[in-house]
Recover the amino acids of this structure.
């Protein structure tokens, strides 16, 4: 049974239909990526899954429970964790305080400590800046902090929205290396990513979204080799 299953999901912003009856699933242990151009509906999909937007119709099932219509904090408490585009860190709090907020719903102190150590091992630059205000970090460091904070919630499913956006190539490599590592350690990931080439390299399966509809789906490596995908998203001519 899939960990996340979306069936016939439609979402509108006023009179504009952002998602048109999409269906997709994410199995436990997978990295699944959504690729597509600007305005395709990728971020809308994640925001609807995490309860920030209400669907007009369709169902969202996570870990055996229907979650559409639930409040975002209830969905986060079920360990479906969303790192939004733009990172969403608390700029006026320290890096350490941001990390502590990741474990807000947890009470298992020893396990929180272990998860904190693991996150800081993955992101040494975050470790070096624990007492700094988060707003003073570079864009890449803020992205690392956002993912580290999400890991302290011990996600069953981690949703990442545009983790490479606006970052230097070296930082992008680091972020994707960590995405691979945390997946190998057992975290299931749903990835929205403008950098389709990197996303298809790291993912097991992919869905191609265009104007609110799924146009293609399948094994990530096969999609990366498809002429249509290469022309549209990978800059091949």
């Amino acid at each position: 049974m899939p960990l996340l299953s979306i069936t016939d999901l439609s979402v509108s912003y006023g009179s504009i239909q952002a998602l048109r009856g999409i269906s997709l699933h994410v199995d436990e242990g997978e990295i699944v990526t959504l690729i597509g151009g600007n305005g395709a509906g990728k971020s809308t999909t994640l925001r609807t899954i995490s309860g920030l937007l209400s669907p007009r119709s369709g169902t969202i099932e996570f870990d055996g429970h229907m979650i559409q219509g639930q409040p975002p904090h209830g969905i986060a408490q079920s360990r479906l964790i969303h790192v939004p585009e733009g990172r969403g860190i608390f700029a006026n709090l320290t890096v350490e305080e941001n990390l502590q907020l990741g474990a807000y719903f947890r009470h298992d102190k020893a396990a929180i400590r272990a998860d904190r150590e693991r996150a800081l091992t993955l992101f040494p630059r975050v470790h070096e800046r624990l007492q700094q205000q988060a707003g003073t970090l570079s864009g890449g460091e803020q992205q690392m902090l956002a993912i580290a904070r999400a890991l302290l919630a011990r996600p069953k499913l981690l949703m990442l929205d545009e983790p490479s956006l606006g970052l230097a190539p070296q930082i992008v490599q680091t972020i994707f290396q960590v995405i691979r590592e945390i997946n190998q350690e057992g975290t299931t990931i749903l990835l929205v990513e403008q950098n389709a080439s990197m996303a298809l390299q790291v993912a097991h399966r992919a869905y191609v979204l265009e104007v609110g509809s799924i146009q293609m789906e399948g094994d990530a490596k096969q999609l990366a080799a498809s002429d249509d995908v290469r022309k549209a998203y990978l800059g091949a001519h």
